[in-house]
Structures
1.
Amino acid sequence: MKGRVCHFVFTCSLFAISWPSVFAQSTPADAQPTNATKTSALSTEDIGGVGAAVRLSTYGGGGEVAVSVTHRTNVRAGFNIISYSRGFDKDGIHYSGQVDLKTFEVHYDIYPWAKSFRVSGGVLVYATDPVTASAVVPGNQSFSFGDVAYYSDPANPTRSSGKIVFNRAAPTVTFGFGNIVPRSKSKHFSVPVEFGIAFHGSPKTTLAVSGSVCDSPGGNCRNAASDPIVQSNVISEQNKINDDISFFKVYPIISVGFGYKF
């Protein structure tokens, strides 16, 4: 009997000594997350974050909203508005011009190192005609269309209007710093800065003329809108303007803003 008791005590002692080591070996595998688990959790937290920003750019004042797609990418959409007037002279005619840029844009942002730096591709859409102009030429004032001289009829002054348009949709390529949707949980504010270009193609000018034109002051006058020779010279003037501005195929994008992540 005494031998059996000693054997039982010895067995229990061995079990007590070995149990902590068995527990220690099984706990890490079950209780501690692996790197893959941590990465998966981080990526899940990044999806669906939303931020918004106000900004000032070469396209005017505006705002944008961004949504995180993955740990390194966002989808961003915004709008811009700028409008101002100025006068200018062209071939003896003084025009009242209006610049009216109303644009919408969408970008896909990639953060290569999941930090502040980003590269983006997108598209910008012109919602209005960017440049319009109109003029009423005082009676007996000289001007020219297509290098042909005319005079405005005092009884029915010559009127000219025109517009300059770009391709309605313009691809964009930009790079910048700052993320409207910071990946850090504790960070909410950002100052996004962006640089790039919009490829809007060669501008296209359209001219329309009404009223009457004269060959000389008080001389032979005719309706500018219906006379085929006058209209041919108007088209020549239009083509000349298009040649003068054909180089302007891209528009610079420079933007700075202030963002907040919700």
2.
Amino acid sequence: MEPYLTSRYGVLFCDDCLNVLRAMRSGSVDCIFADPPFNLDKDYRNAFKDNGKENEYLEWCEQWINECTRILKPGGAFFVYAIPKLAIHFANYMNVNMDFRHWIAMSMKGTYSRGKRLYPAHYALLYYTRGEPKKFKRLRVPVPKCRHCDRDIKDYGGHREKLNPAGLNLSDFWEDTSPNRHKKNKVRPGVNELKLVIPERAILISTDEGDIVLDPFAGGGSTLQAAEKNRRNWVGIELYDCVYVKERLERYFPDSAGNGAMFSYQGLLKE
């Protein structure tokens, strides 16, 4: 299995995710971040068809979720990004062999109400671990400011001076993500890409430098950029748009992209 690209910290495979996942050893990675296609008939401007039968799509999702669970180390973290309708299915699969940690709600702006439904205002980021988490770090975020007057948006009950100067504890409701995933066409690179802060927070919460992060749907490369930036070893898998990932890594890490990986990714594969 030859990689499409290597960098100082990572390796990218241009292949079907199930082919690569099934070739990997059990218990070999520390963290997985997955942002799968949602089967919403989006135009990816490539050969991928995002309009399969629902039962076939969900069966496929169960397969890659099970494979990801298998290759995760005990105590490792598994994050899955999805719309709520799909997240409830994914959670059912993950509940079998994983421990639920959080349903992280992330602000979604710019959409509209459809039919007899409430206004959809969030995406879900499922956070599971394989048993008790081996690593967990509390992150802090800046106190949100008004973009017009630069004052605090909230008054914090009159106790602003008592807040930690490093910022607020990160909660399971992220208001600064604005995924912007509602466009009909998903042209990479462009506004439909997953915001870097989403996989980066997942990585920082659950891993240390040198740990191995895997993304089975590398897409535009947000997870891989976050891993490379924070000195995590990474494995990316992407079937159609590897050229965009390559361009992104070469743009942000010109001294790293194209170099040999410093970790032995061959050891992740079965003999």
3.
Amino acid sequence: MVLILFVLMLLNLSDERHLGGSGLVQTWLGPLLAAAFVAFVAAAAMLWAADTRFERPAAGFGTVRALGLDLFNHFFYPFEAISLLLVVAMIGAVLLAKRRL
């Protein structure tokens, strides 16, 4: 996310024209959907907290070695898929922000 925002900040968008339109989405629909999302996340967090018992973590939990072993042993393919997805998202952000290359 930070990489995509950084690329968007570096683009020169001063010559782009303002796209007109109604303010319906910004005025009513945006805050309504944001409130619904916050309510959904809060309800999910309450359900998760009710079913979870906190236990003491195992020795070595949270260390760099444990993270590296988990990342490259169990989550190697999802890690690579997410990295490819981030590259595609960055290219898409540049293409959407800059109409002509």
4.
Amino acid sequence: MDARHELGKRGEEEASQYLQNQGLPIEDRHFQTRWGEIDLICRDKDTWVFVEVKTRTDIHSPSAADAITPSKQDKLVRAALSYLKKRSLNEENVRFDVVLIEAGSIEWIRNAFEPSSRYTF
């Protein structure tokens, strides 16, 4: 495993622990689709929460937040739709969160972005 992959894996584990400590249970991890992977899938009462984790060892440009581009958002939305369809979870509430880990600090951005209007949940 290369260093970047190992850093991402450690960041996802740190994010998982952080979210659980905040009361957000982890339902699934590393859901793979043809559009990419959803890092963490959580449940917040009646809402499915799809979490993207971005980890950086230091604060630099571009930041971890800059990596959540419109293209990346689109891929996450498609992957979430795939997850819901595969599990027959029709008409469920969804939310897209991002956990940024930079230089040892954690920032949890709830409802980090909204799916474009072309997607129906």
